[in-house]
């Protein structure tokens, strides 16, 4: 066996604390070495830290009310409601998102929301403005049915004027057929 390989294997296998036993080390070097060693040890996790005992915090147990509040908070991050081609009906797949926004608005009567209506570029500009308005009003009507006050909502239609996707593909058109809740 090659002596260099054997020496390297031995050096890697020798624990750090064995180096601290050298009698030629001064007291200040020993203190520095031991503090470095202990800081490295304390930074470890899992089975090597704390004498081989795994430690960690327990996730807090949330009440059902708190779980629902966190879920709705996450759902409110989604503020775009998509529509089918040439349609202005709110789809059932958007119910959870609108429920979260509606609950928030009911609980916070001083908060106002602007609802933007958008359309893809197919159709005349006049038609798309009207379609965007119908989409915004459909969202407002949905929220109002949940108890949101009409005074908390306003709407505007941009028609085809503010597309999200300029690709002129079916998926691009789908992204542009939307209503947006802006707080």
UniProtKB/TrEMBL annotation:
Low complexity bias spans: 25-46
Keywords: Cell cycle, Cell division, Cell outer membrane, Lipoprotein, Membrane, Palmitate, Signal
Membrane topology category: Lipid-anchor
Major location (coarse): membrane
Signal peptide: 1-20
GO cellular component: cell outer membrane
The keyword Cell membrane belongs to this UniProt entry's keyword annotation: no
Protein localization: Cell outer membrane
Biological process, per Gene Ontology: cell division
Gene3D superfamilies the record matches: OmpA-like domain
Presence of keyword Signal: yes
Region feature Disordered, mapped onto this chain: 25-61
Domain OmpA-like positions: 70-183
SUPFAM superfamilies in the cross-refs: OmpA-like (SSF103088)
Known role: Part of the Tol-Pal system, which plays a role in outer membrane invagination during cell division and is important for maintaining outer membrane integrity.
Subunit structure: The Tol-Pal system is composed of five core proteins: the inner membrane proteins TolA, TolQ and TolR, the periplasmic protein TolB and the outer membrane protein Pal. They form a network linking the inner and outer membranes and the peptidoglycan layer.
Record-stated family: Belongs to the Pal lipoprotein family.
Annotated protein name in UniProt: Peptidoglycan-associated lipoprotein
Organism for this UniProt entry: Shewanella maritima
Lineage, top ranks: Bacteria, Pseudomonadati, Pseudomonadota, Gammaproteobacteria, Alteromonadales
GN (gene name): pal
């Amino acid at each position: 066996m090659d002596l260099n390989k054997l020496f390297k294997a031995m050096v890697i296998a020798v624990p750090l604390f064995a180096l601290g036993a050298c009698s030629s080390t001064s007291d200040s070097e020993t203190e520095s070495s031991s503090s470095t060693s202990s800081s490295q040890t304390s930074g470890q996790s899992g089975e090597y830290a704390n004498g081989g005992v795994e430690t960690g915090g327990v996730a807090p147990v949330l009440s059902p009310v708190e779980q629902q509040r966190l879920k709705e908070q996450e759902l409110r991050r989604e503020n775009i409601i998509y529509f089918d081609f040439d349609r202005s009906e709110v789809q059932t797949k958007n119910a959870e998102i609108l429920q979260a926004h509606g609950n928030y608005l009911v609980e916070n009567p001083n908060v106002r929301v602007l609802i933007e209506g958008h359309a893809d570029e197919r159709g005349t500009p006049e038609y798309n403005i009207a379609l965007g308005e119908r989409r915004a009003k459909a969202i407002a009507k949905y929220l109002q049915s949940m108890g949101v006050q009409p005074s908390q909502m306003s709407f505007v239609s941009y028609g085809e004027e503010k597309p999200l996707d300029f690709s002129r593909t079916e998926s691009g058109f789908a992204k542009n057929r939307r209503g947006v809740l802006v707080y």
